[in-house]
Design a protein that fits this description.
It contains 9 helices and 6 strands. It is α/β, with parallel strands linked by helices.
Length: about 230
């Protein structure tokens, strides 16, 4: 009997690309427009791994912003796309990993809490769109991370069973979503303070040093190792 093929599902922000500085600046500019000042990087990190809609719903309530959520979403996306198109950095070993998987014919997808427009802009701007063509945004599913919806939908579109998928994630909500989907997880924490978060305990491979510790070869060996 042939071995079932394995697929690799990538979170985008903080995992494939270092987009968090752009998301922070987009959020800061948006909040400033509504009279909120002093929104700092540390507060931003509380929302890493959580979808844009859920983040803005929380901030709208926290700061008493009297504006429709759709208006806030449109505003943040506008700021973010402007920043993302100007400059987004791909983590070098992540690019190498994507290229290695592509060369080996491994099915891949991006499953992100960002808007589809943001995902497409980043992939096009970095050249990753040549390798990653299956995309799932949190806009396209009922629930964002830590619910498993985006990962399950990505697996469905690739035609691969969830148990045969490996997820790459940088944030606890994403690792929790991978576990809820019944998928193996390579955790590459973006925020050092989250390394000991309980959500990372179930990861098959936890790189406590984050991107500095990640290598394409080690990740590929983990993918090839098969199911737990």
């Amino acid at each position: 009997m042939s071995t079932p093929r394995t697929a690799v599902l990538f979170d985008l922000d903080g995992t494939l690309v270092d987009s968090e500085p752009n998301y922070y600046e987009a959020g800061r500019r948006l909040l400033e427009r509504y009279g909120v000042t002093g929104f700092g990087w540390e507060r931003h990190t509380d929302f890493i791994g959580i979808g844009t809609r859920e983040t803005l719903e929380a901030l709208k309530e926290e700061y008493g912003i009297d504006a429709p959520i759709e208006e806030l979403l449109a505003g943040k996306n506008r700021h973010y796309l402007e920043l993302a198109r100007a400059s987004t950095e791909v983590f070098p070993q992540m690019r190498a990993f994507v290229e290695l998987l592509h060369a080996e014919g491994v099915p891949m997808a991006v499953a992100s809490g960002s808007s589809r427009a943001a995902i497409e802009a980043i992939l096009a701007g970095t050249g990753l769109d040549a390798y990653l063509t299956t995309l799932v945004s949190a806009e396209e599913v009922e629930r964002g991370k830590p619910a498993p919806d985006v990962f399950l939908e990505a697996a469905r579109r690739l035609g691969v069973e969830p148990a045969h998928c490996v997820v790459l994630e940088d944030a606890p909500p994403g690792a929790a979503a991978a576990a809820a989907a019944g998928m193996r997880c390579i955790a590459v924490p973006y925020v050092p303070a989250t390394v000991d978060d309980p959500a990372f305990r179930g990861a098959g491979l936890l790189l406590r040093g984050g991107q500095a510790e990640f290598t394409a070869r080690a990740a590929y060996d983990f993918v090839r190792a098969g199911r737990r």
